[in-house]
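Assemble and predict.
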Amino acid sequence: MNDLLSIEDLRTVFRTPAGEVSAVAGVSLSVPRGKTLGIVGESGCGKSVLSLSTMRLVPPPGRVAAGRIMFDGQDLLTLPDAEMRALRGRRIAMIFQEPMTSLNPVFTVGDQIVEAMRAHDRDASDLVLKARAIAALNRVRIPAPERRFDEYPHQMSGGMRQRVMIAMALSCEPDLLIADEPTTALDVTVQAQILDLLRDLQQQTGMAIILITHDLGVVAEMADEVAVMYAGRVVERASAKAIFDDPQHPYTLGLLGSIPKLDEEHDRLLAIEGAVPPPFALPTGCRFHPRCVFADAACKATDPSLRRIGDAHQVACLRAPVETIVDAVA
Amino acid sequence: MSTPRKDGLLLEVVDLAKHYKVNTGLVFSRTAGTVKAVDGVAFQLKRGETLALVGESGCGKSTTARLVLRLIEPSAGQVWFEGRDITTLGGSELRAMRRRMQIVFQDPFASLNPRMTVGAILEEPLKVHGIGDADTRAKRVEELLGLVGLAPYHAKRYPHEFSGGQRQRIGIARALAVEPDLVVCDEPVSALDVSIQAQVVNLLKDLQARLGLSYLFIAHDLAVVKHMADRVAVMYLGRIVEIGPKDAVFATPRHPYTRTLLSAIPRPDPHRETARQIPGGDVPSPMNPPPGCHFHTRCAFASELCRTQSPALRPTDASGHMAACHHFETLPDVVVERDRAQAPAAAKRLALYAERRARGPASAG
């Protein structure tokens, strides 16, 4: 296997007054080296908890209850804390949606980048680390990096701050970058700059990226493979091209139909009715069936598991492909 | 003063400006500069029409929306609503006018009072404007909930019991309570998931068709704008740089900034080769905008003229399509990228999906 990361049957639960609920309910995924996996789904579908689980950063009262997270041959879930800490940041790095709140306002951005480098390299001199930090800022195309090094986060725009976060995340040349909605808070032109930057950096360094987003446009531009998540499960997995050209799951169809297109003129968008059920009030059977236009009695009763329908294309739907069932319904 | 009212015209904004003084120093405060948040904006809105104001953060679109409602006082300019300049109105006259113009806010989590039931939230504008008695107001609340696709029993619940999309429906119902003519929608869907966005966009369009509403639609998502608007105004650093009928602006964008915005949108097509030209750098600070054309620092076509002289909005054709660029006649023709036709399997399944949707959720059995 040439997968850098492979997640097997991961289950992350949260303790609530009403009992334990699964935010991630048996997810299996893999990311090959140098490739980008896009994870899409609505808010509350478990995509952020999945990424935090991978970093072993699930906040209490949550915990990873079952599964394996194989990273480069070792199971992250059984790693001692100290080893996990050494690995986190150095080999797996993460960037978040909010560049405003991810930086400490009372330290210069230079200090913060150096601090991150220092955590993994105790012996290097201050001067060496400063030079490396400036090189990192330069690499994310921040103009005048020597001057920016001594600036505070509030002196920078949102796009600049996200570049600083990326510089910090990449300062130790990680093998895997987890990017959780990295451009959602940014304007479109800045978003385009950041996506271009991530793509170029991936080509230079050969890192793998897990890109979490709700924007299918971003997925189409960035991802090699896509996992569509719904209510804590992966409901469809395929190459990015197959997700757009051969979408199988009704939820994927709903997401695709919801995007307003620039070229097409539709009177109405194909919205998905209703909302993602919270993990403590999941429906029986297929978790999507109350919102699904194709659902029948079997969908209410049976919870479908992922099945293979083509090369590297998996779907968790009893009725897919949907064109085969239409005639059966009068 | 004579009124600039024409047939069907609901709103006319003339040379609207909002300048904020920036002070520095705590004890010996002095004015360090002025932020021209809105700097000479003019547009018209007809009855039943949707005008979208688009642009990136800090371009002044939300300030413009608030000026139109006179939630903040303009530094200069007029806002004519049905032939009356609302910037000169005061007291009860202004309140009466506000009944005709309402706003839907971006954040459905912050714009509903968490300590009021949904019924009380919807009833409040009716009380403020002294409409009806308790009985008729209760009936109206029920009617409003139905209008936005919620159920009567929702009136007894509190905002935290609702999802983001449902909350935005409540925000819309509140705006519609007093039967306004103009609804200002300030980024009404940008905080919502794409599937929920589609529900709310559909709802706004349905309501417009049923009630003959006019929308001033503030957004940064051009794809949503394309879906909602009749006309589009693109703003950059406090000024309108391009305005015109939606189809003209999207098919033949004249201003380099509009072209930039259009090419920056990620398209949902993995086969597409990304070949876009995004200017480097960020939007300059509105406190210290570049002289001449504000966009010249990021523009590939900027000349000496652009660095010194601010371009005025000029008509590009007879359709009312205008652009503020010295060089729009000589810019290279824009190649508007067409999305590739959808793959047959995807198109077939989406059509089936649409067919089922039209039949209604009853088919779920």
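Chain B touches chain A through 64 residues (CB under 8 Å).
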